[in-house]
Amino acid sequence: xxxxxxxxxxxxxxxxxxxxxxxxxxxxxxxxxxxxxxxxxxxxxxxxxxxxxxxxxxxxxxxxxxxxxxxxxxxxxxxxxxxxxxxxxxxxxxxxxxxxxxxxxxxxxxxxxxxxxxxxxxxxxxxxxxxxxxxxxxxxxxxxxxxxxxxxxxxxxxxxxxxxxxxxxxxxxxxxxxxxxxxxxxxxxxxxxxxxxxxxxxx
Length: 203
Known about the structure:
Blueprint: E1 5-8, H1 15-25, E2 29-32, H2 35-40, E3 43-46, H3 52-61, H4 64-71, E4 77-80, H5 82-85, E5 88-91, E6 97-98, E7 103-109, E8 118-123, E9 125-126, E10 141-146, E11 148-152, E12 158-163, E13 167-174, E14 177-180, H6 188-199
C-alpha cells in the first residue's frame, strides 16, 4: 500500500510548492481538508502563510484542529513557517492567540536591529541530532520569510537556530512533532534533504 503525506488545506498555505518538492522526491502527497484523510495518512504537513491569529482561527473553523491533535504521537507531523508557529502554546502577533500547544513556548516578534520581515538565506546552527536533519552539515543555508519566531520553554525542543542580529529558533522537534521556521520547499538541496527525511520517517 502506497504511503502518503497529507498536506492540510485550511486556506493559509503555499501548497503547490510543497507538493512539487515532494513530487520531485518521488514521495506521494495529498492536499486535503478531510479529517478522514488525516487519519489514514502516514504523515501530516501543516503549512501556513500570513498572521498567527487568522491561521489559528481558520484551522479551528476547518474542523481539522482537533483531528490534527488526535493524530499527534501516531504519525510524524511537520509545521512549516507559520505552520511551525502554530505548534506553540500561543502567539503574540496582532493579539494574543492560542496555538496547538504541541511545543511549549510563545511566538514573539523578533527583537533585532535588522530589518523585518527577515527575508533571505541564513545558515543553520544545529543544536542536537534529529532524524529531520539527518545527512545535513551544520551551517547549511535555508530560506526564511518571517517577522515572528517561536521562543521555546525547553531548549531540548530546539533542533536548530539561526542568527539574525539575535539567535532565532529555526527548527523544533518533540515526540514526533517537528517544525521548520524556514521554507524547506524553497531551500534548494538542503530543503529537499529535510523533506525526504520527513517523508521517509514512517516507512
